[in-house]
Known about the structure:
Layout lengths: L5 H21 L12 E15 L12 E6 L2 E15 L1 E4 L5 E4 L6 E15 L2 E4 L2 E2 L5 E5 L4 E11 L3 E3 L5 E3 L2
Antiparallel strand pairs: 1-6, 1-10, 2-3, 2-9, 3-6, 4-5, 6-7, 7-8, 9-10, 11-12
Amino acid sequence: MKKFGIADLIIIAGVLAALCVGLFTVKHFRQTADKQIEATSPIIFQVFLRGVTVTGEEFPIKADDKTFITIRNVPYTELCVTEVSSQPRKVLSTAVKSMEVQDPAQPALFDAVVTIKDTAKITKDGAVVGGNKIKMGLPVTLEGKKYRFNGTISDVRVTSDTKIDDDGENKEIG
């Protein structure tokens, strides 16, 4: 019988390690990525757009429009805009008393909050959309026919108490 070399022992150890990992996965001692998803639920998240320059007569994003979203420079999909709130950039005026007024130096500069709805996979760490965890501070890009704005997520909410679990059944959250 031939002697085992060091390369043969490394290969045998690798095969045994792979068999152990497979055994632990089958016996549910180890969770795979699909087992971490607890449910699927509709969510609403808000994107804050700071310092958007718009010289036209109206803000280009409207409620009930579709916008294409890019998360962390990875294109995701087209989603429905449910609400848009935009206002001109304000400055503090102390002429008579302290109050906020529209910045006369930059009349075309706006701050906006765009509310978007989607369906997310709910995990222990939060909502997952397009393979990305949706959390406050995440950079996103909104794009339409006439615009492309960069913003950050400022709020994430699960919209209902009834979620759809992985088996397709409704599950009460409480």
